[in-house]
From TrEMBL:
GO biological process: regulation of DNA-templated transcription
SUPFAM superfamilies: Homeodomain-like, P-loop containing nucleoside triphosphate hydrolases
GO molecular function: ATP binding; sequence-specific DNA binding
Organism expressing this protein natively: Pseudomonas berkeleyensis
Superkingdom of this protein's organism: Bacteria
Membrane-spanning parts: none
Domain Sigma-54 factor interaction stretches: 132-332
Pfam families xrefs: AAA_lid_14 (PF25601), HTH_8 (PF02954), Sigma54_activ_2 (PF14532)
Protein name: Sigma-54-dependent Fis family transcriptional regulator
Length: 406
């Protein structure tokens, strides 16, 4: 499968400064890679499949923003062992990391694997964008909100943590809307804010298709005024506003207009933190492994007990994006055997660290899982849900109340 990527299509974006790596670049070019060297602030969200970067000691806010918006897979070069903050970032957002000085053969192999999985991720992401997986009450509630807002004409604010699926929700809303036949338009307001108001610009396109605005908090006071006037004249523009908390922060600091915020946030969607998506973690991990494992012409991988324990104990600061990144890397590491905690880059949970679980705990978990499963199948028919479990409606409602599902 690795050989399926043509040499002519090997595009590598290298983040400057990288002057110390000139000898490495010659080897990469000799291996058929076309190099595009640019500074971080000039790197666009659509920049190729693979990005190579020599990491600083500490992540800058600019780096975090670029990583959040990037659609590429990133490979890091490290001068020394990473600090805890950078180690967490490597796990969440980078496909691989190599220490300097490095083995060029190993790096070439890594870059080739990275490009394959970057393309698989984009292909699978397009397929996956039509679905929002999860049997938890939070996932079911979010699906219901998506259905309710699919035909909404006007701005919708989509907010949530890094990597929690804001752009997925935007695509799902678009594909469920009357505008689904049109191309979904993405705009980075930080880089292209002034272009919003061009005669043939994104706001003009919002009259016929869905426009996703990212980085609205970075608009100048003048552009905020122009956007306010536009929405006051055309309140039915299909705008999806992406926020990771920076819009609300700008509002609190007085850097963003309250009247504009009210127009943009009239309807809201909040993504789910993976650590709060009870019962869905393994479902999502297995789904990712199934998609990428089959696409790589490898049999579906299972997860070992220590992998499941490690995933359950992990806080997932990078949410579903981090989960996808770790599982995809683990697929390359496992080579046919069950995925373990080390493959995922997670610390194994030792038995003496594990929580003591009683029989009552297992009974409660089984009840909760049964309720999650039956509600996923019979969301709008409580009588049928109760019958499928072989219990009466009053008993069913008592269980829902007990587990705080209603």
């Amino acid at each position: 499968m690795l050989e399926a990527v043509s040499v002519a299509s090997r595009q590598l974006f290298v983040v400057e400064p990288a002057a110390d790596c000139e000898s490495l670049f010659s080897l990469l070019q000799a291996a058929g890679w076309t190099l595009h060297r640019c500074h971080l602030e000039r790197l666009t969200a659509q920049a190729g499949d693979v990005v190579l970067m020599r990491l600083p000691d500490q992540p800058s806010s600019q780096l975090l923003t670029v990583l959040e918006q990037s659609q590429a897979c990133w490979v890091a070069l490290l001068d020394e062992p990473p600090q805890p903050s950078m180690k967490a970032l490597l796990g969440e957002r980078f496909f691989a990391a190599h220490s300097l000085p490095l083995n060029a053969v190993n790096l070439l192999d890594t870059l080739q694997q990275t490009q394959v999985f970057a393309r698989l991720s984009k292909q699978q992401g397009e397929r996956q964008a039509r679905h929002f997986l999860g049997n938890s009450s939070q996932a079911r509630s979010l699906r219901q909100q998506l259905e309710r807002l699919a035909n909404w004409s006007g701005p919708i604010l989509i907010s949530g943590e890094h990597g929690s699926g804001k752009k997925l929700l935007a695509r799902l809303l678009h594909e469920a809307s009357p505008r689904a036949g049109q191309v979904l338009v993405h705009v980075d307001c930080v880089r292209n804010g002034s272009g919003l108001f061009d005669e043939q610009g994104p706001l003009a396109a919002a009259a016929r298709t869905t426009v996703v605005l990212d980085g609205v908090a970075g608009l100048s006071a003048q552009d905020q005024q122009r956007l306010l006037q536009t929405l006051q004249g055309k309140p039915d523009l299909a705008l999806l506003i992406i926020s990771r908390g920076e819009l609300e922060q700008a509002l609190l600091q007085g850097d963003f207009r309250k009247d504009l915020y009210r127009l943009l946030a009239g309807q809201q969607l909040q993504t789910i933190k993976l650590r709060e998506q009870h019962g869905d973690l393994l479902l999502l991990a297995e789904h990712i492994a199934r998609l990428h494992g089959s696409s790589a012409s490898r049999r579906q991988r299972s997860f070992s007990d220590d992998a499941i324990d490690a995933m359950t104990a992990h806080a997932w600061p990078g949410n579903v994006r981090e989960l996808c990144s770790r599982v995809v890397r683990a697929l390359a590491q496992a080579r046919g055997r069950p995925i373990n905690a080390q493959d995922l880059g997670l610390e194994a949970v030792h038995s003496h660290d594990a929580e003591v679980v009683t029989l009552e705990d297992y009974i409660l978990r089984a009840e909760r899982q049964a309720l999650d499963d039956v509600l996923a199948r019979h969301t709008h028919n409580m009588s049928q849900a109760a019958r499928s479990l072989g219990i009466s409606r009053p008993t069913f409602y008592r269980l829902l109340h007990k587990h705080r599902l209603r």
